[in-house]
Amino acid sequence: MRLQEVLFFVSLYLVAIAQSGHKPCVQAFGADQFDENDPEECIAKSSFFNWWYFCMCGGTLMTVQFLNYVQDNLSWGLGFGIPCISMIIALIVYLSGTTTYRFMTKSNEESPFVRIGRVFLVAGKNWRKKIQGGTGKSRSVEGSEQFRVLVPFARTITGKPSGITTLQRIGTGVSLSAISMITAALVEQKRLEVVSEHGLVDKPDAPVPMSIWWLIPQYSLFGVSEAFTMVGLQEFFYSQVPPELRSVGLSLYLSVFGLGNFLSSFTISIIDKLSSKYMDRSWFTDNLNQAHLDYFYWLLAGMSLVALLAFQLSTKAYIYRRSNTV
Q1: Each residue of 154-167: b (16+ CB within 10 Å) or e?
Q2: 185 and 296: one domain?
């Protein structure tokens, strides 16, 4: 293996190691800078994760638009050098504010891992017992029935810092995800109809007489759904774990996407093999005019609806740890 290849793979692993420590800790540290006992800062903290995700998407957009141009037209080395210099500047700015940061003091409580272990121990002893029936309000946050979907309007109406609860944000994101997949399936069906009408089934390189604007609804819905889901998960895993485990909680949030990527690859592989075996051709054949991505989108929509149903059932009995932060 050449030295250049060794450096390439070493760099990839270094990035992975750096991200594993940076991503969960920096979000928890940023949210810790807000005082939960101050109403104004409590409201600002509820918007912190929104702005965090907005800046992350902005950085991704800049990377795609600017750095790709630099690498394609100027130099690959310069394309990697610019983000390297940017990270050094960001590190200097971060370290320069060390004296102004708020650090959470360690409480005298016992280890959170001991408390969590005790929960599982008691649950194992009492797994045969039944809880006494109660009203809906005994299992939900006071006033949560009046929360609205749109966060800015909900904050005005309900007076809650985050406008809607974190679980409602996640549920809204999953719902919009299902709708976006349904939209994608309908658009793909329309595209295949146009392909068939113009005799382009066996011409994968020929342009399809459809406007690109057909793709706007599904991508817009999916973008909004991702914003609701990711921001909701970030705030949920931050606010609902013990203060000592906030970084661990945000690591669990990130593990959801890692596990999802593995399951996605596994699902595609299984569908590819089954469709190739029991149908005329694979859903993912190289010729998209002969493929059936619409079937795959319908499957994803069904999976999203099943996930939404399971999510709704699991959240009915959930009791928030701190109602003033959700």
Answers
A1: bbeebebbbbbbbb
A2: yes
